[in-house]
Amino acid sequence: MHYDPVKNVFAAVINKLPFTRVLFYKTLDLMFLRSWYVRRELRKLREKAGGRHLEIYDAGSGFGQYSWFMAKNLAPCNIYSVDVKEDWIEDCKKFFTRAEVKNVKFGVEDLTKIDHNEQFDLIVCVDVMEHIADDVTVFGNFSRALKQGGYLLVNSPSVFGGSDVHGEEDESFIGEHARDGYSKEELVEKMAPFGLELYQSKYTYGWWGDKAWRLGIKYPMLMLNKSKAFFIFLPFYYIITILPVLFMMYADYSTDNKIGSGINHIAVKKK
């Protein structure tokens, strides 16, 4: 399955009015369990920094969901938000300008080719690394871009069922993925040569989260890939499933998962 065609349909709708885009952000925050985990860790890192001003790099911003959240909740901060897709960046520029968000700037960048030097206190990279084959180069670029003592937050599918791959015979559920996922050990090994030390690593989407993802995201996406006409039936589908999905998401969010199909990994650049 490919996410991008479905994302492009959503993009055409949310760009109609600023209100629809904000509503879309809130819907993503509610329905995607990864957003629950990412926003929790971002709040913790903000608290750890105290009142200090933060320079933040949103590495692979997509629709701008996390840049919007950080601009509102991690202040005082400046955010440089980038993506390789120029049309998405242009859409974000227009919306953030209309919304009068002053502390976010946007740019088109390929993470394998960036050349920032000790510029950022925090790099946020959510569901991006699984799309990039040359991940080692990107981790090196991130390290160079971080200030000493800066943090890198990477959220990705894991090797424990990430991309819905549970065995050698399975193929990734998402056609755009360059890898099925990461383990904690692999991320530590790949980041260590660049001075990025483990700060915290948590598996997400455990037993409860996996069931919530299937019911709340996977099955609707499969239907939409078959026919965009399923958009008409989505509200009725979610009327039936929303409460069970949210219950399962909360159960996962409150659990210390030993394994899970997602991973939320934070590294710190050695001082």
**CATH homologous superfamily grouping:** Vaccinia Virus protein VP39
Q: So what's the CATH class?
A: Alpha Beta
Coarse morphology: globular
Number of domains: 1
Q: Could you give a short account of the major beta sheet?
A: 7 strands, mixed
Structural class of the helices, strands and pairings?
Answer: alpha/beta
Strand content: 15-25%
Q: So what's the oligomer here? A: single chain
Mean of all residue-level pLDDT scores: 90
Number of strands: 7
Strand order of the largest sheet: 3-2-1-4-5-7-6
Helix content: 40-55%
- CATH-derived architecture: 3-Layer(aba) Sandwich
Tally of helical runs: 9
- Separation of termini? 43 Å
CATH topology: Rossmann fold
Walk me through this protein's architecture.
This protein is of the alpha/beta class and 271 residues long. The protein has a single domain (3-206, 259-269), classed as 3-Layer(aba) Sandwich (Rossmann fold). Helix content is 46%, strand content 20%. The chain has helices at 3-14, 18-31, 33-49, 65-73, 86-98, 135-145, 184-191, 207-226, 234-253, and strands at residues 54-59, 77-83, 104-108, 120-126, 146-157, 196-204, 262-269. Strands 3-2-1-4-5-7-6 form a 7-stranded mixed β-sheet, sandwiched between helices. The protein is globular. It starts with a helix and ends with a strand. Residues 165-173 have low confidence and may be disordered.
